[in-house]
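From the pipeline queue, job 12 of 40. The input is one protein chain; the requested action is below.

Action: predict structure.
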Amino acid sequence: MSSSPQGRPAPGRPPVSLPEPSVIPTNGWHCGHYFYRFCRERINGKLTGKMCEQLVNALHPSTEASPERLAAYWTSGHRADFCVMVMDPDPAKVDGIHQAIMAPGLGAFIEPTWSFVSMSEVSEYVPTIERFRERLIADGADPASPEVEAKVAAYERRLPMMNEQRLRPEIPDWPAACFYPMNKSRVVGANWFSEPFSRRNSMMAEHAQSGIAFAGKVSQVITVGVGLDDWEWLVTLWARNPEHLREIVYKMRFDEASAKYAEFGPFYVGYKSTAEEILKHCRLM
């Protein structure tokens, strides 16, 4: 500790410059994934026009209340009828969408079934420029070749754009999406966090290489729930076709980072929708 119990700097030590307290992250955005089911046993028919309007307003908020990113999906299976993904620097705007859905009126006929609170980040396994060069050389490339320099230069141009997509991702206007939480295992013989960084980095590089085969078919963002929720990460996959979701998850499970060290939670699949489309799909209007 560099300060006394009273909060003053300890004798002989310079004062520590601390950032102002804030709920806004210095890097990345807050993210919320919310899942709901309609309580049809309470509705006993169709929702009233006012209740339908409440959902429409919640999922298509006014400019002032609108978060930076918001997308809704009707979901397959019995665990939820629809889900909403929200991202913004301000956690109040993120949670505000959930509160608008659950407010009196419509809220009496909706049950939250699951949620995940997280933040966007740039993973420690994203290669720096120098690490990218080292990886090329380790794979057998000639360090003095023009090819290496060209690949490094191209990566340097792409990296800011890729990191921007990790921190403040655009949600593609694609029809299918998949959401699932995951941890890295801590069991004896497969404790991810006891492996040296070089080993973990190598496994994640293999994992990333598997995903590259789906460029243009699948887009993803991984948000971190460490210290915020029960699981460590939430994976969001968007796809041009749901078959690509099945293919990419199946293929990547054979990578050592997944096969040996990954623990998965429940999978949800959804189809991008407006509020009106969700209500119509669920036979409530």
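Job complete. Residues 146-167 form the longest helix (22 residues).
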